Amino acid sequence: MKIAQRNSHMKISAFIAASLDGYIAREDGALDWLPAPEDEPGGEDYGFREFFDSVDLLVMGRKTFEKALTFDSWMYGDKRVFVLGSRPIDIPARLRLTVNWRSSSPIDLKREFMQMNLRGVYVDGGKTIQRFLSDGLLDELTVTWIPILIGRGIPLFGRLDKDLRLGLIESRTFENGFVQSRYEVLR
Description:
This protein is of the alpha/beta class. The chain is 17% helix and 29% strand. Strand 3 (57-61), helix 2 (62-68) and strand 4 (80-84) form a beta-alpha-beta unit. The longest helix is centred in the middle third of the chain and has 10 residues, at 106-115.
């Protein structure tokens, strides 16, 4: 009998920043409380580029996609992106070769990912991360905690039907007070 090893399957991961009180954006989606990348000493990206290079595809919600379109440039290069939404999304012509709309459930998406032979999938956006967590499909979660309290906003985590245990893989601290924790979602 052959036993599948955990690291031989596709990994579905989230990589996100949150305020110390657990918000990923203000109520209106504003990210003004996050430091701008150009303000970071030495161009520190907190491991994002290494993580991003390790995945084949990015799944994000419609609101996250719309927010990403407001940035000066499309930060995801030519990486394939699936945008989740209940209705079709207007994708700018310049992104149509790499960005696709899906209205699938996380479980249906995982089936599609497996057929695509992906090694790694990056899940981004509050609701999208919550849906993958709720369906038991997220393998790893990296959260960079920003030392600020914003009081209210869009929460990183939502309600769960049952407890969800996480195992700490590693934790790093940075000179500016950021603390980044990478967790395995325990099954």
